[in-house]
Predict the structure.
Amino acid sequence: MSERDTSRPVPFARAVRAMFDLTLEGMVWSRRSVLMAFLLGLPIVFAIVYRTVLAAHLPPRVTPFDFYGGIVVFYYLRFVVPLAALFYATALVADEVDGKTLTYLLTRPVRRESILAGKFAAYVATTLSLSLPAVVVTFFVLMTARGRAGLGGAVPDLLRDLGVLALALLAYGALFTLMGVLLKRPVIPGLLFLFIWEFMANLPGYLPRFTLTAYLRSLIRHRPAEEGISEIFGQVLPTALCLEVLGGAVLVCLAAAAWIFSTREYVMDQ
Amino acid sequence: MTRSRLVVISSLAVVGLGVAGALGALYLDPARAAVGPLPPEGLALPADTRFVMGFDVHRFVASPFYARFGKGQGQSRPPAFTELEEKTGLNPERDVDRIVVAGRAATKGQEGGLLIVSGRFDRTKLSRAIETETKGVTSKNHEGTTIYLFREGAASGARAAAFLDDDTLILGSAESVEATVTNHARGEAPLRSNAGLMALLETVKPGATFWAVGDQSVLSRLPLRIPAPGGEGAVSIPPLKSVVVTGELDPLVALEMTGEASDAKAAQNLADVVRGFVALASLQASQRPELKELASAVSVTTEATRVHVNLRLPYELLDSLQPRRPVAEGSPALR
């Protein structure tokens, strides 16, 4: 059995994998995950209530597909997915700093970029595992409420929604990872970004292009009727532009986060 | 394997199973057709077809819309259907599955349209009804198919009907019917060469109760100026290059319209026109409260050169928009 050359750092891929396993174990079995699993799974309850109570007893004003579209647009994409990204991604480094455990990681013979890469991979695996099954179950509970008619026609929307939600987790996750390595208290600025800055997506002209949500919303096909200025100025950005901007945002944010994390001197409070 | 990895793998397995089930549902969907919602026999339509629209008759008949507006007042079915069934044995509510309407280039005139009716027919009884009940009908054999010709010598052109097969009846102008019969008999699909229309059909969601796609040549016949809200002057509507409409009738009337304008500015103008009418409806809500609901039932968005209009009309709203009938003297309401 060959011994590793201890004068060199652990190979990048091995270090990423080890960091992934370590972070995943702490991330999946945490109180944060219980809360997020509840929030991300709540639409399943909405769907069951719609199917068993609303659809049967109330005047049918919303079709199951419209209800599903509303959940994807208003609940997942605008609220809970960015929130999950905020709480998990800002904590990737901040939790280690708060717990004063970052020193133990930084003194290992691994490159700092591999620590961040492993943690981000664990974030992606955890959030995808919590959110996507809930979307799939919600889709089937709602779309079979009136038999199988219309189920096949809605499948392309399901696949698109799953892709867009995964992209949303990546884009918001990369941004909040950057905020996490840059700021000591990243949650409040993150909340301000989500609920103040992202509101620009409802404004006219080029302002929506300075938000992430405008690109994400443009990629999904559900267009629920809205009231207020978001309806007046509703615009959908071209798909190619959305993919380019979101892909670019992920790469730039992750590269910047990796560079800051690998060069920054972290001083632990005593 | 760690517990955490097990959780991740289990979750992703649920997603994988869901996606596999969804793809299975898509593949096995009875509404899945040759191109978008168009059935295979529709591909035999002439290549110069400019618009195609379709109805799922079973879903239409089962919808609250048909119950409210399709049948006569207090009747279980339209009287014309009863008469048709007596003469031909055909009950459209029961026997017809799907109707596809196609229109051809302007050079073929307004009479160049075609109807493809799919369902279960008593072919013998229906053929006999055509031969005996219709005056001046003649028939000829064309590519092994009997074509019935009506109104030969009429200024608007002869009409024709033919069975493409036991389950498919086509009706329309003699020239269009003959062309379609020829294409079907030879196994040709000339509509596939109409790339523009094919691209539009691909965008239609399969399984819709009704749908329609049309290109520029059809839309050029539409008026480009409409009366302005309030009745003063007129509003210019930017010309459209294509339009795609899909609709559902149960549990509410749901319409999705996508129009493609010549450029982004024209699309924005068109969206503004629609929003203007919606805003006007909102302003009138103080006098007619039901209009407030109408305003919130419409969503308008633009995507580069496209305008999407999404309409969701509950039947209660449609009822409230109907003109109120005067109450007859001696009716229970006046007693």
